[in-house]
């Protein structure tokens, strides 16, 4: 089903078995601060995770981009416990495709490699392809962020290319960005693969 031209950029809640993606709000600030402190994620130079003292400004930045029609930001919650564990977004919104990027994502260290990221990506992809009617979904990451690149490739995304000196990183260095995508005709196979990943025993997962 294809949504209307502007309908797809409206805030929405996406729910899986173990993850809930809810519209980002300043009400989530304390929980997000606690999550980012789990692993001191802001100290990783190649990530988009804000420092605790910058969380309010980062939330306002993302909400400003949402108001401008350029981003749809989510707070990521562990569904059984209701605990806030990170942030993610639909970014680079292009209604003419339509197409979106899934990005600006970070998770608390204790949440990583648990299957939560796979499930979050699955419900984001399902909404993008099945509800919005996207022709493609993009992923972008730092050329040197090998953990992120491997995680994106495990989703089934293919490398479209590398944008050289694409952005300036928060430490002032220039970032080469790897651009990946999943296109509409690949989505059924990707969905089956991700569902299989979630259903197999945790000890056999490679996330």
Describe, in plain words, how this protein is organized in 3D.
With 207 residues, the protein is an alpha+beta fold. The protein has one domain: 3-Layer(aba) Sandwich (Aminopeptidase), CATH 3.40.630.30. The protein contains 5 helices and 8 strands. The chain has an 8-stranded mixed sheet, sandwiched between helices. The longest helix is centred in the middle third of the chain and has 17 residues, at 116-132. It starts with 13 loop residues before the first strand and ends in an 8-residue tail after the last helix.
How would the blueprint of this fold be written?
Blueprint: E1 14-15, E2 19-23, H1 29-37, H2 55-67, E3 71-78, E4 83-94, E5 99-107, H3 116-132, E6 136-142, H4 146-155, E7 158-168, E8 174-183, H5 187-199
Parallel strand pairs: 5-6
Antiparallel strand pairs: 1-2, 2-3, 3-4, 4-5, 6-8, 7-8
Helix pairs in contact: 3-5
Give a concise summary.
This is RimJ/RimL family protein N-acetyltransferase. The protein has 207 residues and is α+β, with helices and mostly antiparallel strands.
Highest-level CATH class:
Alpha Beta
CATH architecture: 3-Layer(aba) Sandwich
Radius of gyration: 16 Å
Give the overall shape, derived from the CA principal axes.
globular
How is the CATH topology named?
A: Aminopeptidase
How is the main sheet built? Answer: 8 strands, mixed
Range of helix content: 25-40%
Give the low-pLDDT segments: 1-5, 203-207
* End-to-end separation: 30 Å
Structural class: alpha+beta
Order of secondary-structure elements: EEHHEEEHEHEEH
How many discrete domains? 1
Q: Count the strands?
A: 8
Protein name: RimJ/RimL family protein N-acetyltransferase
InterPro entries: Acyl_CoA_acyltransferase (IPR016181), GNAT_dom (IPR000182)
Pfam families: Acetyltransf_3 (PF13302)
């Amino acid at each position: 089903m294809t949504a209307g031209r502007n309908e797809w950029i409206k805030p929405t809640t996406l729910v899986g078995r173990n993850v809930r993606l809810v519209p980002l709000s300043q009400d989530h600030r304390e929980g997000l601060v606690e999550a980012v402190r789990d692993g001191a994620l802001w100290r990783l130079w190649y990530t988009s995770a804000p420092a605790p003292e910058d969380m309010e400004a980062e939330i306002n930045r993302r909400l400003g981009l949402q108001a401008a029609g350029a981003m749809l930001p989510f707070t990521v919650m562990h569904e059984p416990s209701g605990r806030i564990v990170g942030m993610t977004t639909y970014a680079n919104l292009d209604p003419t495709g339509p197409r979106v990027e899934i990005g600006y994502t970070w998770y608390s260290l204790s949440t990583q490699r648990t299957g939560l990221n796979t499930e979050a990506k699955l419900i984001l992809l399902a909404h993008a392809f099945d509800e919005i009617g996207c022709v493609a979904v993009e992923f972008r990451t730092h050329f040197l962020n090998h953990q992120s690149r491997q995680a994106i490739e495990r989703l089934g995304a293919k490398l479209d290319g590398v944008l050289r000196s694409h952005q300036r990183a928060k430490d002032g260095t220039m970032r080469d960005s790897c651009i990946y995508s999943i296109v509409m005709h690949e989505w059924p196979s990707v969905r089956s693969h991700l569902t299989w990943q979630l259903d197999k025993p945790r000890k056999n997962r490679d996330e």
